[in-house]
């Protein structure tokens, strides 16, 4: 049996750095900016090595890119950090790519970072310090503000988190992104979670340990466009919601109860009118409105049930989360390994 005891891995400042850091970068059609991104990582790795004695590795997960991303990734040099390139057999989505990266890391701590330059490498040293020096296990970042997003989108985000956290014991922090650092024991815990439908932000919160929030100013995308359109964001929200809460089901029950109570009162009032005041039932319009309301609500709630049943089905099929088509490892050049 897989043990669930990860406490044996120490977070003691003296031994933490010795475990090294793996940086997982999912890339999907990021060819134009990848070389520059890698250059920045090399600089970062050199700094981390010099100041903290931390050996780094980067794991690029090519998520079935259609442009030359894989070729660019293959050509990157392993100066001052090891470079792994994991190429998936097709586009599986960012969550699957993150999982693939997590499965391939060889160092202790894990940092998730986007390959489009929106997650500032300059912040990494601070995140690392929170882990090594202060012993935090999950250092997650949150956008300091959403001023550049539309009012509608901000309200939607707020509504989503209100719903997902409704009654939840472990609240998922609003605005937290995928840019986060996990200590070795937190990464080990995350790896033990068996589910196929993954919502990383939620899972990384759910595992517990010592968590810390760091606010940052997100940079604008340097090349290309975001791969998340509103339709995909809605998909991700439903995914997150159904993975982390039964709030929609509870809401369905409450609504059903409320409607039934309303119907009961309405029935009483009809009886009252007929018996006491002797008026006949006016009927038709109220009947149609009632029918339509009930029909609509029932259909919505069947849809909600369907979401959960679909989730059970995909967990039951237990398919692999991704397939690796190609995997290459370049070890750091000896002169920069020497310390
Ligand atoms: N990404 C991925 N697979 C996908 C979509 C995106 O690996 O199917 C990567 C992408 O290359 C980037 C990160 O996930 O490194 C974030 O994607 P994007 O910038 O499109 O999202 P946003 O920043 O708008 O949330
Ligand atoms: Mg981005």
UniProtKB/TrEMBL annotation:
<comment type="similarity">
    <text>Belongs to the glycosyltransferase 2 family. GtrB subfamily.</text>
</comment>
<feature type="domain" description="Glycosyltransferase 2-like">
    <location>
        <begin position="22"/>
        <end position="183"/>
    </location>
</feature>
<keyword id="KW-1133">Transmembrane helix</keyword>
<keyword id="KW-1003">Cell membrane</keyword>
<keyword id="KW-0812">Transmembrane</keyword>
<dbReference type="InterPro" id="IPR029044">
    <property type="entry name" value="Nucleotide-diphossugar_trans"/>
</dbReference>
<keyword id="KW-0328">Glycosyltransferase</keyword>
<dbReference type="InterPro" id="IPR001173">
    <property type="entry name" value="Glyco_trans_2-like"/>
</dbReference>
<dbReference type="InterPro" id="IPR050256">
    <property type="entry name" value="Glycosyltransferase_2"/>
</dbReference>
<protein>
    <submittedName>
        <fullName>Bactoprenol glucosyl transferase</fullName>
    </submittedName>
</protein>
<feature type="transmembrane region" description="Helical">
    <location>
        <begin position="251"/>
        <end position="272"/>
    </location>
</feature>
<dbReference type="Pfam" id="PF00535">
    <property type="entry name" value="Glycos_transf_2"/>
</dbReference>
<dbReference type="GO" id="GO:0005886">
    <property type="term" value="C:plasma membrane"/>
</dbReference>
<feature type="transmembrane region" description="Helical">
    <location>
        <begin position="284"/>
        <end position="309"/>
    </location>
</feature>
<keyword id="KW-0472">Membrane</keyword>
<dbReference type="GO" id="GO:0016757">
    <property type="term" value="F:glycosyltransferase activity"/>
</dbReference>
<keyword id="KW-0808">Transferase</keyword>
């Amino acid at each position: 049996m897989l043990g669930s005891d990860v406490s044996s891995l120490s977070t003691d400042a003296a031994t933490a750095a010795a475990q090294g850091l793996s940086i997982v970068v999912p890339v999907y059609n990021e060819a134009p900016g990848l070389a520059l991104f890698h250059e920045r990582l090399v600089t970062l790795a050199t700094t981390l090595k010099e100041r903290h004695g931390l050996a780094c590795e980067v794991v690029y997960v090519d998520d079935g890119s259609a442009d030359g991303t894989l070729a660019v990734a293959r050509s990157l040099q392993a100066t001052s950090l090891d470079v792994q390139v994991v190429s998936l057999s097709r586009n599986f989505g960012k969550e699957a790519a993150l999982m693939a990266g997590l499965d391939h890391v060889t160092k202790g701590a894990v940092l998730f970072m986007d390959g489009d330059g929106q997650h500032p490498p300059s912040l990494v040293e601070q995140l690392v310090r929170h882990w090594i020096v202060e012993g935090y296990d999950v250092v997650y970042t949150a956008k300091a503000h959403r001023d550049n997003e539309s009012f509608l989108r901000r309200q939607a985000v707020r509504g989503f988190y209100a719903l997902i956290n409704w009654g939840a014991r472990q609240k998922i922090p609003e605005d937290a992104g995928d840019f986060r650092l996990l200590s070795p024991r937190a990464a080990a815990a995350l790896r033990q979670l068996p589910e196929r439908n993954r919502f990383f932000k939620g899972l990384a919160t759910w595992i517990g340990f010592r968590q810390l929030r760091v606010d940052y100013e997100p940079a604008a995308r340097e090349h290309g466009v975001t791969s998340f359109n509103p339709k995909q964001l809605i998909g991700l929200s439903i995914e997150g919601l159904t993975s982390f809460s039964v709030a929609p089901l509870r809401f369905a029950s409450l609504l059903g109860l409320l409607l039934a109570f309303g119907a009961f009162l309405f029935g009483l009032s009809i009886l009252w009118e007929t018996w006491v005041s002797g008026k006949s039932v006016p009927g038709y319009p109220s009947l149609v409105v009632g029918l339509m309301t009930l029909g609509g609500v029932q259909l919505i709630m069947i849809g909600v049930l369907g979401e959960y049943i679909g989730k059970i089905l995909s967990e039951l099929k237990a398919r692999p989360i991704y397939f690796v088509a190609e995997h290459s490892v370049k070890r750091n050049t000896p002169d920069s390994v020497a310390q």
